[in-house]
Amino acid sequence: MGSIDETYIQAYLPFYSTSYTQKYLLKAYQEQGITEAAQYSFSNCYPFISYIENGLLYLKQTAQAPAQIKPLLLYYGFTHLLKACVLIVDPIYPETTAVLAHGVSTRKKKSNNMSFSWMRSKYKEMAYSPT
Q1: Distance of CA 58 to CAs 47, 48, 65, 67, 72, Å?
Q2: SS3 of 24-84
């Protein structure tokens, strides 16, 4: 895994401008027939820029990072870019913090009834079995 191509990064440079980004989001929301497109484009401008900025920062860091953590940086980088993509088609993403998972998620709520008993028993088996 080498460094990210500079032309790829330059393609995102216009989105560092709030004026450009707000117009871009406004056009996207209007094309989808979203009511209150102007309000959403204004309120989503900075989160959108943040997703782009953070995503590219993670991707740039893969050039200097040890091989062991490159997959993690790539995961977070592309996850942030994907969140920017989702914000283009869903102006209320994320609707609430309850829908967020570790990455990009759907509007499904997290389960509060999680049980890890199978994992604990498997861990005990592994810990006490001779190898």
Answers
A1: 16, 16, 10, 14, 9
A2: HHHHHHHHCCCCCHHHHHHHHHHHHHHHHHHHHHHHHHCCCCCCCCHHHHHHHHHHHHHHH
49-102: pLDDT as tens digits: 999 999 999 999 998 999 999 999 999 999 999 999 999 999 998 877 765 665
- Say if residues 81 and 12 touch (Cβ distance below 8 Å): no
Rounded to 5 degrees, φ, ψ at 52 are: -65, -50
Cα 119 to its chain centre, rounded Å, is 29
**Nearest by Cα to 41 from 55, 23, 17, 53:** 23
Cα four-point dihedral sign 51, 56, 81, 89: positive
Residue with tokens 């309850």: 98
Q: What is the per-residue pLDDT across 17-46, written as a single tens digit (0 to 9) for each?
A: 999 999 999 999 999 999 999 999 999 999
CA gyration radius, the chain: 20
